[in-house]
Specification:
The structure is a single chain. By secondary structure, the protein is α+β, with helices and mostly antiparallel strands. It has helices at residues 18-30, 48-58, 128-142, 242-245; strands at residues 6-11, 35-40, 67-71, 82-87, 90-95, 109-113, 150-152, 164-166, 170-178, 184-189, 197-203, 206-212, 224-227, 232-236, 253-260. The protein is built from four helices and 15 strands. It has a seven-stranded mixed beta sheet, sandwiched between helices. Strands 9-10-14-13-12-11-15 form a seven-stranded mixed beta barrel. The N and C termini lie far apart (55 Å).
């Protein structure tokens, strides 16, 4: 496998955490020529599904031969495996806790990282990001063969994809994550709404205006919805936080009432 030249880091360590800098120090010590990009370090603590979603929507914007490292790892220090997954020329290194579920493909090559020769010693009980993930990623990026670092495996732990229930008159979705603006990204995608006439959108007992074409159209509305850059229906409060307006957003469903089918031209702007 040819050497990769870029590593991305996704963690729940928090903005400004010294742990991120330490991981970069390990990587640069072993592979000084490799570029390291911070994808995000503000995943909600231990939120595997959020990390899986962010990774699935982000990796495609990086060079094909990148190494994507995810350290959202509530099971650190246990017997959980560390997985390396190869999809064509792209590599992912992550704990085997479902965080690779949304980038997994049936033809992906799967490996368990188990060659301890390359780990930093002594291995910490709480910081495998430093002692295992960082050195393994650096060596992969330098072109060290995967079989020198890992053993092939047949399967990994997968978690269910976000749910969308499609009925005759309704589409019901759930919130996947809250972004840094307080916008709520739902499981309803643009293709679910194609050629449908939307009568009403509700969320947590509140009426949602839209879908709109841009944030500005949501001005003076409590909640509005837009198709975001990921192609998902996103609930927002103009220049504010939808999450703050709906404290129980994690347990609430978005409910879209359909007026009729078969109308061309895309969804109408119901919920006025």
């Amino acid at each position: 496998m040819e050497a990769s030249r870029l590593i991305t880091l996704t963690t729940d360590f928090g903005a400004g955490s010294c742990f991120v800098g330490i991981m970069k120090g390990v990587i640069k010590s072993l592979a000084p020529e490799v570029s390291v990009v911070d994808l995000t370090h503000t995943i909600s603590f231990g939120n595997v599904r959020e990390a899986a979603f962010v990774l699935s929507k982000s990796y495609r914007f990086f060079p094909e031969n990148s190494v994507h490292v995810v350290v959202v790892d509530p099971g650190v220090g246990t017997e959980r495996r560390i997985i390396c997954m190869q999809r064509r020329r792209t590599l992912f290194v992550a704990p085997d806790n479902g965080v690779l579920s949304y980038v997994y493909e049936a033809d992906a090559k799967l490996f368990c990282v188990d060659e301890e020769t390359y780990f930093l010693k002594p291995i910490s009980r709480t910081f495998h990001g430093r002692d295992i993930f960082a050195p393994v990623a650096a060596l992969i990026a330098k072109g060290v063969p995967l079989l020198s670092l890992c053993s092939p495996v047949d399967k990994i732990h997968l978690i269910p994809k976000p749910q969308v229930v499609i009925e005759e008159d309704f589409i019901i979705g759930e919130v996947i994550t809250c972004d840094s603006f307080g916008n709520l990204i739902t499981s309803v995608e643009e293709n679910h709404l194609k050629d449908l006439d939307i009568e009403e959108i509700t969320f947590a007992g509140k009426r949602v205006y839209g879908p709109v074409e841009n944030f500005e159209e949501g001005r003076d509305k409590e909640l509005a919805a837009v198709i975001d850059s990921f192609g998902h229906l996103e609930i927002f409060h103009y220049l504010g936080s939808a999450a703050s307006l709906v404290p129980r957003w994690q347990r609430s469903k978005v409910r879209i009432r359909i007026r009729r089918y078969g109308i061309s031209g895309g969804p109408s702007k119901g919920s006025h």
